[in-house]
Amino acid sequence: MAHYLGIDVGTSAVKAILVDDAQAAVAEADVPLKVSRPHDLWSEQDPEAWWAAVRCALDRLQAEAATALADIRGIGLSGQMHGAVLLDENDRPLRPAILWNDGRSFREAQELAEKHPELSQAMGVIPMPGFTAPKLAWLARHEPEVFRRVRKVMLPKDYIRLKLTGEIATEMSDAAGTWWLDEAKRDWSDAALAATGLTRDHMPRLVEGSQPSGTVRADVARHWGLRSDVIVAGGAGDAAAGAVGLGAIEDGSAFISLGTSGQLFVTTRDFSPAPEAVVHSFSHAVPGRWFQMAAMLNAASCLAWGAHVLKRDIGELLGETEAAYSKPSSVLFLPYLAGERTPHNDPYARGVFFGLSPRTDQTDLVQAILEGVAFSFADAKQCLEQAGTPLTYAGMIGGGSRSVFWARIFASVLNVPMLRYQGSDKGPAFGAARLARLAVTGEEPEAVCTPPDVLATIEPDPRLVELYGPRIEAFRGLYRALKPEFMRQ
User: Fold this and answer.
1) Residue 254: φ, ψ to 5°
2) Would you report the helix, strand and coil content of the chain in percent, each value rounded to 5?
3) 358: Cβ–Cβ under 8 A, 6 or more apart, which residues?
4) What is the predicted pLDDT for the residue at 424?
């Protein structure tokens, strides 16, 4: 029986999943990662830490399922998008990678938008500090010696490809998030590259996510007892990989991802840019498809933060909060712990609790966090509607999707049914394994990327829908009122 391996290089962990021909999980491994924040707005990781975590994950899979690992035919890669991995002439990192939630290049993003307004339509979105291109503009201004030594710019998952295969390559969905890809042409944009002082020579080779990008190096194969002909697929950025894992490859397929960050994702058959709505219109991980996405920088990470501050177990907090829940909280929470992208494009935005009183307890705070994240998705839904993409339902994936209580809140806040799927928390790593299979077998994506079984459909509660309406407007008003204060930080 053939097996396929999916590896997801996330922000908080590397996740690996080994699946068989029936797409059943044989073994899984998670290895935590740490983020460095040496200055305000900065967020960095050492690329070598990703490789160390991947090696650890493979060691664990080998200990748990050595026979299945030895039989893998393909490896798919997924990862956090937008990160700037900068290599020298020897393919070694010149500095720590600048991550997706790093806001230092806000000025450079504004300058790109002002100097090159014509490019946003082709790039699928306005330039934002999270994207790779403004990061390189920041580097040229603030670390010119490093910039001059850059020979290749890579994305996080593609550094693992380099380690596995020796190839410098990426695929369309991750390249889409750099602000250097002409989304309609699915090719690098010479004009966008020139705007940041780069050329095609600095860029990885492009492949589709479901195509081979290379084979595993002989020394890597020997170390873990792999076959000598293991193919590494193009793979996908984490959002698109999650879509592939969920079977969201057909026009109109929609889902919400509740991981460290959050996405509201809708697949489209055509490239439909709407930069004025701060919606991302990007190439999908399978050929001939695109997607529209609203991206929020803060999602389940807010709940993890709350549990850390309260020094409580997340599961216990959710259980207590659900037992106390009857209506929308009187406390509002702005979830912008790491700034925000859609709809505000504001790296200076910060988290806020509003409406505290002597009677406020832990369950009030946790409910406000859950609702605040859901309210940010209501903003995302509004942006997609402005871009001409109405939302009629949404699946849920990511760690936050495990909570039925949170799904109920989402259903009533967004006023659409929420679908919970079997194995939805496997997310991008499972999608990467599917792309590995496509690269090996050449099957049609529709034959492999089927939706998982629906565990439950959670309908909106009409009473709560009515009660949440004014709270969503109050949430939006609170950000508008505090924006001047955020800018003074």
Assistant:
1) -135, 145
2) 45, 25, 35
3) none
4) 67
DSSP at 339: B
CA distance 426 to 396: 11
b/e burial code for range 284-303 (CB count within 10 A of at least 16 → b):
bbbeebbbbbbbbbbbbbbb
**Residues near 137 by beta carbon (within 8 Å), at least 6 away in sequence:** 105, 108, 109, 111, 112, 196, 197
Q: Taking the C-alpha atoms of 354, 358, 360 and 362 in order, what is their torsion angle to the nearest 10 degrees?
A: 120
- State percent of the chain over pLDDT 70: 99
Sign of the alpha-carbon torsion through 289, 294, 297, 301? negative
Cα distances (Å, whole numbers) of residue 170 to 153, 184, 188, 237: 10, 17, 11, 10
Q: Are 31 and 99 in contact (CB under 8 A)?
A: no
pTM: 0.90
Q: What is the pLDDT of residue 4?
A: 98
Residues 169 and 204: beta-carbon distance below 8 Å = yes
At 397-442, the pLDDT tens digits run 888 888 999 999 999 999 999 999 887 667 799 999 999 999 999 9
462-487 vs 362-386: helix crossing angle, rounded to 10: 90
Q: How many CB atoms lie within 10 A of CB 133?
A: 29
d(CA 330, CA 324): 13
Terminus-to-terminus CA distance in the chain, angstroms?
A: 58
- Number of CB atoms found within 10 A of residue 345's CB: 20
349, 308 contact by CB (below 8 A): no
- Pick from 351, 341, 349, 260: which is nearest to 301 by CA? 260
The helix-helix angle for 362-386 and 404-414 (nearest 10°) equals 50
DSSP state of 204: P
In the sheet with 254-258, reading across from the earlier edge strand, the strands are 280-283, 290-296, 262-268, 254-258, 394-397, 418-421, 454-458
Helices (H) and strands (E) in the chain, counts: 17, 24
Q: Distance between CA 314 and CA 330 in Å, rounded?
A: 21
Kindly list the catalytic residues: 238
Rounded to an integer, the average pLDDT of 3-9 is: 98
DSSP class of residue 368 equals: H
Dihedral of alpha carbons 251, 254, 259, 261, sign = positive
Tell me which residue has tokens 């393909």.
Answer: 74
CA distance 94 to 148: 11
Whole-angstrom distance, CA of residue 120 vs CA of residue 139: 21
Query: How many CB atoms sit inside 10 A of residue 451's CB?
Result: 17
Burial of 116 by CB count in 10 Å (0-12 exposed, 13-18 middle, 19+ buried)?
middle
| Structure confidence by residue, pLDDT tens digits, 101-148 | 999 999 999 999 999 999 999 999 999 999 999 999 999 999 999 999
